Amino acid sequence: MNFNIATIPGDGIGPDIIEQTVLVLNKIGEKFGHTFNFTEVLAGGAAIDATGEPLPQETIDICKKSDSVLLGAVGGPKWDNLPGDRRPEKALLGLRGELGLFANLRPALLHRALKDACPLKPEIIGDGLDILVVRELTGGIYFGERGRRNGKFGEEAYDTETYSVHEVERIARVGFESAMKRNKKVTSVDKANILESSRLWRSVVEKVAKDYPEVELNHMYVDNAAMQLVRNPKQFDVIITSNMFGDILSDEASMITGSIGMLPSASLGEGTLGMYEPIHGSAPDIAGQDKANPIATILSAAMMLRYSFNLEKEADCIEEAVTKVLEQNYRTGDIMSDGMKLVGTREMGKLIIDAL
Ligand code: NAD
Ligand code: IPM
Ligand code: MN
């Protein structure tokens, strides 16, 4: 089959990890008889430098016409002093909004081979960890009204968190549907002791839960959830939460899988078009040094094959290759531990390709 993929290398380590991921996809194409056509487009700092704006219309148009989008990362110190709506990060919000990608799946899976890279004690991890964070992606404080004004103490700034019944209902359904295919447990994370938007969130989640009687539901305040993730992460199966809480908790969850360089994501909407990207950023501290872990991006490509293209075997093939290379003790710096073999971005990519 033929698939059109828009690629957005972006900034920092973005181009390095996308390069390896495209090579992996090409090898999958060869092996299984598919053609992946890649169209590289600009977003983020790279787009600001080339066109003056973080998300050119051409990029939006090409992404909309593609079967899926593969993104590296955007942002970096070079663009940190630009006003909010002209920063590289605005491109991500623009794409998520324009493409209607309201559901962000962030699976935190600890590979057996990486137990030593997990900072938690072996008795806490047990036989492994497998948590799915379902993050709402096109609402909440990221998309609410914001600005500056004159207040009681002079100049002030504000951001607002808004959630509609509709927005909570559709993300809750994604969470419960996911739980039905997993261990049938949902933890809805909010701050309902303080926020009105969280109280609405909680009541809508309860209503949706009635359609999934087999799924066990509990509610947890976000501060407690942050603590429970390191105290007893095995209590979680699916976590559903708002845009900002999901952003924060998924970085925390990534660390218990060994490194943020391991965590992939899928951003999905109503149709099959999705955007796939690692959860980490452009890592300016290691950019251009062949040090970045490409696995989160390569695993994001596996999610693309599964969710947008319905190529289950091919997705499994990538995931198994990653497991194999980890079991052969190859490690990038971020997941390195005693006795392991240190490799760079390109070599890690090559090892995974050879293992496909
Ligand atoms: P970051 O995720 O880029 O980096 C945090 C730390 O993790 C750094 O020490 C970095 O070296 C390390 N790290 C991240 N990815 C890694 C990988 N694949 N392999 C090895 N180590 C890795 O977060 P930050 O430093 O807070 O942000 C840097 C820039 O990235 C900012 O401009 C931020 O806005 C942007 N950002 C973009 C995205 C995205 O494009 N999706 C996500 C998060 C942050
Ligand atoms: C992520 C990033 C983005 C977010 C930023 C860069 C806009 O941190 O994808 O997790 O907060 O969603
Ligand atoms: Mn983030």
Q: Tell me the Rg in angstroms.
A: 20 Å
Distance between the termini: 19 Å
| Structural class by helix and strand composition | alpha/beta
Shape: globular
Unreliable spans are none
**Total domains:** 2
Describe the structure.
The chain is of the alpha/beta class. The chain folds into two domains: 1-101 and 284-356, 3-Layer(aba) Sandwich (Isopropylmalate Dehydrogenase); 103-268, Isopropylmalate Dehydrogenase (3-Layer(aba) Sandwich). It contains twelve helices and 14 strands. The chain has helices at 14-32, 45-51, 57-65, 89-98, 122-125, 165-180, 196-209, 222-231, 243-255, 295-307, 312-327, 345-355, and strands spanning 2-10, 35-40, 68-73, 103-109, 130-136, 146-151, 154-159, 185-190, 216-221, 238-241, 266-268, 274-276, 330-331, 341-342. The strands form three sheets. A ten-stranded mixed beta sheet has the order 2-1-3-12-11-4-5-10-8-9, sandwiched between helices. Strand 8 (185-190), helix 7 and strand 9 form a beta-alpha-beta unit. It is globular and about 60 Å long. 3-isopropylmalic acid is lined by residues 75, 89, 92, 247, 279. The site of nicotinamide-adenine-dinucleotide has 21 residues, from helix 4.
